[in-house]
Design a protein that fits this description.
This protein is an alpha+beta fold. Helix content is 28%, strand content 26%.
Length: 357
């Protein structure tokens, strides 16, 4: 990944933006795509759509490539008289991970540092089989002397995120919080840039949605206004090539072996075939995985919109999802962006992906 693209990714990852509070990440994204998009629109909740208008032909294909801007996090639910905070999860926060985690509470006056308390193992007993408390039962220590002091620092309703930065691992691999799904929003923006660079003869939208972690809410809003011929949701997917992956879950997905194309559920068979063919023609490594019931991504919101929009989920392999130390390979991200640009170029004149009955 070149210096300019990596700087964009780092800025996205530095922007703490839990679901419902995505403004920081969306500002970074909009600024970047504004350099090459013909038009950038945002809505009342902060969804962003950048458009490259490569053709005036009504029969040309209209593509939409989307990643979500939000991440999992916390929200301050109460401030106790002793100065400790109680929080609620934003999205699918893992209580086994949050205990003992340093966090940042994002207030109107700036960041307030805190720690989600964990009883020392000496007091719990070594070798015990303790279960983590629910996130709502855990407490946050911001160092306040009492409740009045805490109220001077934070307010009920302030969001919070894990205090974790980006760390380079061996080769082209990165660890950090919010790779779910800044990796996907990076790919959506970068695929638009590459499509524009190729001067593809079609219309391409790059979309950065909000509130995916709360149930694909932002995608539902965008799908009301946008009517592409094909929609691709770019999101992280579970990599199976590590000791933490459950042995009873079948998967062949590996880090560094390319983005994944999903088959089944909302993934349209003609779009699946077209993207795989584009990857083969462009000699881009692509993996295949399955979605038996639902994808758990923005694809689930889009494919039933407007009577049915042919949709696909494109995955970025990710280890340790929904932790402050997710791991991805940036080569997979670049492969995904290149694949989508190649797909738009190859299918620019196709128009419809409807099944033939």
């Amino acid at each position: 990944m070149d210096e300019q693209r990596r700087e964009f990714l780092d800025r996205l990852l530095d922007a703490q933006s839990p679901a419902g509070f995505e403004t920081a990440a969306q500002r970074v994204w909009v600024e970047y795509v504004g350099e090459f998009a013909d038009d950038v629109q945002t809505d009342a909740y902060g969804n962003a759509v950048a458009t490259y208008e490569g053709s005036d032909d009504a029969d040309a294909t209209e593509f939409a490539f989307a990643g979500h801007a939000d991440e999992v996090g916390f929200i301050v639910a109460s401030i106790a008289d002793d100065g400790f905070l109680r929080v609620e999860p934003i999205g699918g926060v893992d209580g086994t991970v949050s205990e003992g985690t340093q966090i940042e509470v994002h207030t109107g006056d700036g960041v307030v540092n805190g720690v989600i308390g964990q009883t020392a193992v000496h007091l719990r007993g070594f070798g015990g089989d303790d279960e983590a408390a629910d996130v709502t039962e855990q407490h946050v220590d911001i160092g306040a002397e009492d409740g009045d002091h805490a109220c001077e620092l934070v307010s009920v309703g302030d969001p919070a995120t894990a205090a974790a930065g980006v760390h380079e691992l061996a080769g082209s691999r990165l660890a950090g919080r919010a790779l779910d799904n800044r990796a996907g929003s990076w790919v959506a923006a970068e695929s638009l840039r590459r499509a524009a660079e190729r001067d593809v003869d079609c219309t391409v939208h790059a979309v950065s949605t909000v509130q995916e972690e709360l149930g694909t809410k932002g995608a539902q809003m965008v799908a009301f206004d946008l009517e592409p011929d094909v929609f691709v949701a770019v999101d992280v997917t579970h990599a199976a090539d590590n000791p933490t992956y459950p042995a009873d879950r079948a998967s062949e997905v590996e880090l560094g072996e390319g983005p994944t194309v999903s088959r089944g559920a909302s993934n349209h068979p003609n779009v699946v075939r077209a993207v795989l063919d584009a990857g083969e023609t462009a000699e881009i490594d692509v993996q295949v995985e399955t979605d038996g019931i639902r994808t758990g991504t923005d694809a689930d919101a889009f494919f039933t919109a407007r009577g049915g929009i042919p949709t696909l989920t494109l995955g970025i392999p990710n280890r340790y999802m929904h932790t402050p130390a997710e791991v991805v390979d940036t080569d997979d991200m670049e492969g995904a962006a290149e694949l989508l640009a190649a797909f738009a170029e190859r299918e620019a004149a196709r128009g419809s992906f409807a099944v033939d009955l």
